[in-house]
């Protein structure tokens, strides 16, 4: 019990806390701190007096691997909650699931808005009494939409067939066989590329099921320039 | 600002050594490591040494969490003391060449006190804590400029007497006197504030 009785105890405690007590004197003080309760008490008193908080501005983000190293060296895995019992896990899971649902729903709702509106690329007209048909291509150029001015249905033994007559010439390409002219037609990329100004769209009347030859065989009732 | 109540809970939870202690300790690390690394770096100067100090300090915090007394000690101050002590040991043993980069601290004004330390009132802090903080602030301000500067440099930058003498370009004996007198006057000032409050 030597340091506890020292007249210097107060000064030494202060300097220890401040950090100016160094070397052997510091070691001696730390030994006394362990062995002499009065020394520890005196330091505690100083700690209550002198405990300024460091400004948050001095903070520095630690290196990325720091936490992993501590986990490894201290064997912290022993004291962690199994993942399925973590409240946080289920809470996060619920949040994530809700968020995914919300995003999914929003996507469904927004999709028509996000995608560029279909653009009318041709108006198909005929000499006969058949209604005029507007042909519109979707923003992604994968769907051709036919909108007749009034409903046009093929007879029981007939089908309509939609043709693309390429701008560069050549045989008409069959785009679809239809029962009526109010239709959405998927367009293969090879055909989509040819839906350009100069090309033509046409509708012929074919036997049920479409042209037996691969080219138009019946009368062309509607046609329009792109 | 770090929330003492939250830190206290995390420390106690870490000390229990039960399921969930690792998560509490991780949370403690995420919250406090940046400030602690900042403190370490002020003292040892070099980044890689400071990271080592941080690692050692958190190892000590984990090992000694059960000795933390929530009624007697402010948790952040407890942790800062651990990191500072480790940093001072490392600095002494590595003979760290001090780079003279203390322009902020060399400026001795109340502004420096307010820039280096956070005197604001944390939410939910006990009345006596709040008073102790304001007494410290006032008593530091009331010290002679040279004394205040010596204390602030020593505490904030972990300067030894020798560092202070070199930095302030004064004889070692003079600097030691400033430190000792500064601490004594600070102590007396705070004591009289306490007496006045009774």
- Give the CATH class of the largest domain in chain B: Mainly Alpha
Oligomer: heterodimer
Predict the CATH topology of the largest domain in chain A: Immunoglobulin-like
SSE order of chain A: HHHEHHEEEEEEHEE
Strand arrangement, major sheet of chain A: 2-3-4-7
Counted beta strands of chain A: 9
Number of domains of chain A: 3
* Major pleated sheet of chain A: 4 strands, antiparallel
Radius of gyration of chain B: 18 Å
| Reported CATH architecture of the largest domain in chain A | Sandwich
Structure classification of chain A: alpha+beta
What is the typical, i.e. mean, pLDDT of chain A?
85
Shape estimate of chain A:
rod-shaped
Please report the number of helical segments of chain B.
10
Q: Which segments of chain A are poorly predicted (pLDDT under 50) over 5 or more consecutive residues? A: none
Helix content of chain A: 25-40%
Number of helices of chain A: 6
Q: For the largest interface in this structure, which chains are involved and how many residues does each contribute?
A: A-B, 45 and 65 residues
The CATH C-level name of the largest domain in chain A is: Mainly Beta
Q: Could you say how many structural domains of chain B there are in total?
A: 2
Order of helices and strands of chain B: HHHHHHEHHHH
Question: What would you say this structure looks like, in words?
Answer:
With 226 residues, chain A is of the alpha+beta class. Chain A has 3 domains: 3-58, no CATH class; 66-112; 119-225, Immunoglobulin-like, CATH 2.60.40. Helices cover 34% and strands 23% of the residues of chain A. Chain A has helices spanning 9-18, 23-35, 37-49, 66-74, 87-114, 189-192, and strands spanning 53-54, 119-124, 133-137, 143-148, 158-165, 173-178, 183-186, 200-207, 220-225. In chain A, the strands form 2 sheets. In chain A, strands 2-3-4-7 form a 4-stranded antiparallel beta sheet, with no helix packed on it. Chain A has a 4-stranded antiparallel beta sheet with strand order 6-5-8-9, with no helix packed on it. In chain A, a hairpin with a 5-residue loop joins strand 3 (133-137) and strand 4. In chain A, helix 1 packs across helix 3 and helix 2 (23-35) crosses helix 3 (37-49). Chain A is rod-shaped and about 120 Å long. Chain B has helices at 4-15, 21-44, 47-64, 75-94, 103-106, 110-116, 127-142, 145-157, 161-168, 172-197, and one strand spanning 117-118. Chain B contains 10 helices and 1 strand; from the N terminus they run ααααααβαααα. The mean pLDDT of chain B is 87. By secondary structure, chain B is mainly alpha-helical. Strand 1 of chain A pairs antiparallel with strand 1 (117-118) of chain B.
């Amino acid at each position: 019990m030597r340091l506890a009785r020292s007249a210097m105890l107060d000064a030494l405690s202060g300097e220890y806390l401040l950090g100016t007590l160094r070397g052997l004197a510091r070691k001696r003080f730390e030994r006394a701190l362990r062995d002499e309760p009065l020394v520890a008490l005196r330091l505690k008193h100083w700690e209550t007096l002198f405990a300024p908080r460091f400004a948050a501005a001095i903070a520095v983000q630690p290196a990325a691997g720091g936490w992993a190293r501590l986990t490894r060296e201290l064997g912290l895995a022993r004291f962690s909650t199994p993942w399925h019992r973590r409240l946080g896990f289920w809470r996060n899971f619920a949040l994530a699931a809700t968020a995914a649902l919300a995003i999914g729903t929003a996507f469904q709702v927004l999709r028509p808005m996000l995608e560029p509106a279909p653009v009318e690329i041709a108006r198909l007209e005929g000499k006969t009494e058949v209604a005029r048909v507007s042909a519109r291509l979707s923003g992604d150029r994968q769907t051709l939409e036919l909108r007749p001015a009034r409903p046009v249905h093929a007879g029981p033994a007939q089908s309509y067939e939609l043709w693309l007559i390429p701008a560069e010439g050549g045989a008409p390409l069959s785009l679809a066989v239809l029962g009526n002219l109010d239709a959405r037609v998927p367009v293969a990329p090879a055909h989509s590329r040819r839906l350009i100004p100069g090309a033509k769209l046409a509708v012929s009347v074919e036997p049920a099921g479409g042209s037996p030859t691969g080219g138009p065989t019946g009368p062309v009732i509607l046609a329009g320039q792109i | 600002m770090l929330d003492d109540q939250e830190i206290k809970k995390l420390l106690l939870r870490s000390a229990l050594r039960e399921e969930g202690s690792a998560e509490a300790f991780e949370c403690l690390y995420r919250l406090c490591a940046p400030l602690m690394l900042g403190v370490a770096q002020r003292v040892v100067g070099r980044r890689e040494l400071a990271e080592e100090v941080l690692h050692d300090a958190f190892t000590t915090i984990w090992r000694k969490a059960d000795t933390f007394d929530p009624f007697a000690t402010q948790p952040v101050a407890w942790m800062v003391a651990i990191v500072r002590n480790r940093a001072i040991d490392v600095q002494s043993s590595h003979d760290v060449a001090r780079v003279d980069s203390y322009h902020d601290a060399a400026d001795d004004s109340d502004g420096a006190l307010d820039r280096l330390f956070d005197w604001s009132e944390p939410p939910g802090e006990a009345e006596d804590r709040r008073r102790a903080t304001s007494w410290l602030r006032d008593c530091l301000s009331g010290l002679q400029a040279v004394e205040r500067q010596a204390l602030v440099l020593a505490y904030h930058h972990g300067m030894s007497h020798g560092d202070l003498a070199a930095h302030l370009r004064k004889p070692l004996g003079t600097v030691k006197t400033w430190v000792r007198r500064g601490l004594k006057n600070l102590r007396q000032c705070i004591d009289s504030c306490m007496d006045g409050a009774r």
